Amino acid sequence: MLQIILLSFALFLTACGGGSSGSENSTPKVSALQKALSSGNASEVSQTQLLSSLRDELSFLLQGDPLLKKIYRDDSIVYDPSNRSQIIKIVGDKHKIFSILQGNAGNTLAAAGTKQKSRFAAFGAAPMEYFVAGDNLSYEAPFKRLLAWLITGESDDNLDKNRTIALSFSYADRKKIVTWLESNYPQWNIQQCQRDASDLQSCYSNADLVITGWQTAEMNRDKVEDALEELVKKGTPILYLHTWYEAYNSVAHTIARFLGFELPYGGNYWAKDKADWQSVELMQAGVVEQSGFKEITEVVEHFKDKDYVLDWSLCSKKDTERACVTKVGFDKKFRDAALKVKNLIASHEKGGRKLFDSDRYTLEKLLILLGDKYRQEVRYPMDRESTDANLFLKSLYADYSVYNLRQVNPAQHDMGNFSRSDFSHITPKSKSVTLQSKVNFRSSGVYALPGITMRVTRLDSSNVGTKIFINSLRSAATHEFQKNGYKRPKFLQTHHYKIQKGETLEITSPYGGVVFVGFDANDENVSFKFENIGEHAYWASSADDTSFTQKLATGDFDWAEVITSGFEVHSTLEKMRESVSDSRWGTAAVLAAATQRYMSNFPHVLAGFKGPGIDEVDEIVDFANTHGLTIKNLDKVKHMNADQATCGYGCSGNPYDAYWAYSPVGHGDVHELGHGLESSLIRFEGFETHSTTNPYSYYTKSKYNETLGYVGTECQKLPFEEVFKKLQLSVAETNTTAYLKENLWKNSNWSHQVMVMIQAMMHAQKEKKLKNGWHLLARLHILEREIKKAKDDWSNRKSSIGFSNYTLDEFNAIKNNDWMLVSFSFAVSLDFREYFEMMGIEFTSKAAEQVKSYSYTSVEKKFFLSTPNGYCKNDKFGDFLDKMSLDINGSAIWPN
How far, CA to CA in Å, does 766 sit from each of 364, 760, 882? Predict the structure, then answer.
């Protein structure tokens, strides 16, 4: 079977294999396909030919290499390398390297293949060591057949001739290997090479087989690679044995990369994979299942026959999107295979492999070229129900199969609401950019043009790790299953490409977009030269005032950015125009200054952080110093995409994204930022998440209003009067807590629930324990972050976080309400027991005893009055949190 398939492939690909259309008059098409596979340009190749070639290629790969049957025959396959072994992650061409030993959990434990004139095999362990120890003995016979194939090309050769074996290992590892070789092949000459690699080529020169490993020529990878190059030119077989579960040095990675595999971190340590198959056929079925080739074949067949059907009538209005997609069978019919394609391509992009510069990787190239063809047919918007399923899924396939490390990658003709496609009005230019590194990433200020190869050269000599990527948009912000929701490409953010000092990357995106730089360390000056790029509206300092204003008005690009040291706004053009034109700002410079103050500063003050651009507030810092607590340093850049939301109307994350135009004092903006600051521990039991999300927004708005001296922005309306009246009614009840639990908290939402925190803040401010009651939350954050440190030295540190009477076991079992009672009280030196009772918050006697032991002044049973949104401004009841109060006594009446 293999020979027949290879004959058909040889018509057009002698170097790497591939598929053919089978047409009698296929010579011109074959030539075009061969050209496409070498250049990455599919313009002259038809979809039909690509699909036919893919079918042939996948058919070959599904068969499995005949070597497997020769090695294992009709025997069962049992091999357990233990978790102190490595995994062989195949990344090379499937014609050149393939799994020969698959674990039942899906990991490759050994692989074999060819490299130029040589045969090779690689194991994540040394089987000989197990054999000597009396383990895995049933694998000894197939291993000998593999050795025979390596040396002679025939698995049934008994290897009884004199052979020279060059062995490159440390003494500890080579001892058992030598013992087994001498015992089984006494006529062989075992030549042990020096580990310092000074004479590797000499040692290997007369070998019939080279056995090497990760301790070969440690720290001398160049000499190792040179020696391997000589071996494959001559046709000397190679056996790689990895004798530990980690890849310890660059030599291991060099050998692996040379042969077409990777050694993942941790190896088999956590997977604990092993092989236990009744037959080689069952093992090969496991390999096929793991590879996704069967699923990809089914997708190719559907595309070829144009017979895709997605019956969306199976869904009901009650179904979630995920449930609906499952009912229709989208995953099984398409997504599972598409993800295999995407992950396969991503593995090559991660490895920096330029597939079209190689004569290998036939499958990957065909998959990519098919996506290129489909990408040119995409027309937005599409609707899952009204759009033909074949067109809908071809468009999605184009999204899943993007590959950017090449010279040819045509711009997509229609990019929907992401961006225009025609940039003929832009003349590509070069620009050198210097950035101060900040985790996780920063905008470069340049724009990759779709279909045009961008060259990036790193110029600096710092040691900070950097990565280049295009677009910060999340894939879930494309809502392809909503009504007419498929209106842009799904995977707009590219892979993050590592770039070393002095290295040049070439990236061609079919979509283009803002270019970003990722960093793994802070405060280093890092420089790049960008070639063939555009310059959109970008503001990072006053030097950009004129340029930004002109570019925003001209609108040559559909994206614009305002950048500060701690926060970056990446916005569609129209939304940025709206942000800047807000009467509160008016210019990018003013917007940026407000961003520094109200987005980078105040929310992080309230979250109990310190760091660049974050104010040091005395009553926060002094509290930490008094109790020997650490204020965590925050020094990273946060981001917003003003575009489409991943979830709802705005969705948290870094970046968070939203449908609205950005505002540094917008509730939604600070709210989404707040999701990344809140702590689940600082939340009463049974309360909604948003009860702890919004205070960051309220605090920011309060500070904005304080700055202006009047109401500059409104906070959300909260039900002060409603909660007050429920509390008054509870006084007459025998069990106040039970009454409020049933009549208030059971049917409450976040707006009622956040009242518990805000009223506590008001008490702390009224009792002059805080100048600004909001800072109670900052102190709680500091306490919460100190828990881990306290647990590590509980007897000495527990008093510093307020739990002096608790054993570590008791503290580990604590519930939120108890932690909140003790921590509220400890944070401001007030006894909140009666306040919690008044609010109907349950707590245990253990927590009550802890608070009682401090002899703090008790918080009065009073409720502070406010108009619905008056708590972060001036209103008739007082200024900000400093409001008038009434007793919760069962008779007090809310004033008109």
Answer: 68, 10, 7
Cite the DSSP H helix spans in 161-308. Answer: 171-184, 200-204, 221-234, 250-259, 280-291, 293-305
pLDDT in tens, 167-176: 987 656 678 8
CA 844 – CA 847 distance, rounded (Å): 5
User: What are the Cα distances from residue 210, in Å, to 87, 192, 202, 234?
Assistant: 21, 10, 12, 12
Model confidence, pTM? 0.89
3-state secondary structure 137-160: HHHHHHHHHHHHHHHHCCCCCCCC
Nearest to 606 by CA among 630, 631, 625, 628: 631
- What is residue 173's predicted lDDT score, i.e. its pLDDT? 62
Q: Where are the domains of the chain?
A: 2-61+289-400, 75-278, 678-887
Residue 200: how many CB atoms within 10 A of its CB?
26
Residues 478, 381 contacting (CB under 8 angstroms) = no
* Pairwise CA distance, residues 262 & 353, whole Å: 13
* Integer Cα distance of 683 and 677 in angstroms: 13
- Indicate the helix (H) or strand (E) that contains 275: strand 275-277
- How high is the mean pLDDT of the chain? 93
Residue 467 β-bridge partners = 498, 518
How far is residue 728's CA from residue 892's CA, in Å, rounded to a whole number? Answer: 7
**Calpha distance 153→813 (Å, rounded):** 64
pLDDT for 198 equals 59
* Nearest-10 Cα torsion for 95, 100, 106, 109: -120
Chain position carrying tokens 């699909």? 51
Handedness of CA 793, 797, 801, 807 (dihedral sign): positive
Average pLDDT over residues 631-651: 98
User: If we measure between CA atoms, which residue out of 660, 883, 632 comes closest to residue 773?
Assistant: 883
User: Which residues, in sequence order, are bridge partners of residue 506?
Assistant: 455
Please state the length of the chain: 896
Over the stretch 344-391, which tens digit does the pLDDT of each residue have? 999 999 989 999 998 889 999 999 999 999 999 999 999 999 999 999
Q: What's the token pair of residue 737?
A: 């807590």
C-alpha torsion angle, residues 846, 851, 855, 856 (rounded to 10): -160
- Burial readout 349-364 (b: 16 or more C-beta within 10 A, e: otherwise): beeebebbebebbbbb
Nearest-angstrom CA–CA distance, 249 and 240: 15
419/414 Cα distance (integer angstroms): 9
Nearest to 90 by CA among 112, 68, 61, 71: 112
210-243 core/surface letters (b: 16 or more CB in 10 A; e: else) = bbbbbbbbbebbebbbebbeebbeeebbbbbbbb
Pairing of strands 454-458, 504-507: antiparallel
Q: Could you give the CA distance from residue 547 to residue 540 in angstroms, rounded to a whole number? A: 11
Q: Are 450 and 510 in contact (CB under 8 A)?
A: yes
Cis peptide before 81 (omega within 30 of 0): no
Nearest 10 degrees: CA dihedral of 666, 667, 668, 673? 90
Mean pLDDT of 692-714: 93
Q: Are the C-beta atoms of 487 and 421 separated by less than 8 Å?
A: no
Provide the b/e sequence for 155-181 (b: ≥16 CB within 10 Å): beeebeeebebbbbbeeebbebbbebb
* Alpha-carbon gap, residue 347 to 349, rounded angstroms: 6
Q: Is the CB of residue 525 less than 8 Å from the CB of residue 466?
A: no
Q: Please name which of 762, 787, 789, 788 lies closest in space to residue 773, comparing C-alpha atoms.
A: 762
Please, are residues 289 and 102 in contact by the beta-carbon 8 Å criterion? Answer: no
Whether 221 and 254 have beta carbons less than 8 Å apart is answered as: yes
CA distance 267 to 73: 29
